[in-house]
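Incident log, structure service

09:12 report received: a user says their structure output differs between two submissions of the same chain.
09:20 pulled the input from the user's history:
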Amino acid sequence: MNTIPQDRTGPEALVALVRGRIDRPVVLVGPMGAGKSRLGRRLGQVLGLPFVDSDDEVERAAGMRIPEIFETLGEPAFRDGEARVIRRLLDNGVRVISTGGGAVMRPETADLIWAQSISIWVRADLAILAARTRNGRPRPLLAGKNPEDVLRELSALRDPVYARAMMQVDTGSGDDDAIMTQALRGLLDLLGDCDE
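09:34 re-ran on a clean worker, output below:
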């Protein structure tokens, strides 16, 4: 791991060190409510890279919202569409991609992400995830259920897969700048040796 001099620890200095060294897509994986889209949008902005949310792309391709896809076509059809979208996004150049929480549970999709991207597991504690998912957009896997119970079960299944990502970012504490600094430091650690 690289050591960053203390005078070069702010987000702006880290952006300067990381920008231009990203040579493949940056893919954010992790549970619903972890903040993948929020972090991804911000990372794309500061690094000068396009940001794409795979859930938005699935909705665009299907011509319907995710809850409608689950209700009318079922989860397997949603996962098929999600896999096609992620494959296309990975093939379309350097960008920041936020994925749905279950995307990496399809082994072929996970293998593509691990092989073709800089993968980041975006994490937060269960209580924070439950609070974040109680509000906002509808989430079919939580419909009519206790979010904390569902998230606990999903965590037991999915966390070992998320753990295959190249790095982790905890979005549960700290302001946006602190989270961004954590992400940029992780990227610098991963990419830092490429010019040495």
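09:41 both user submissions now match this output. Likely a transient worker issue. Closing.
09:42 reviewer note: Residues 75-91 form the longest helix (17 residues). Residues 1-7 have pLDDT under 50 and may be disordered.
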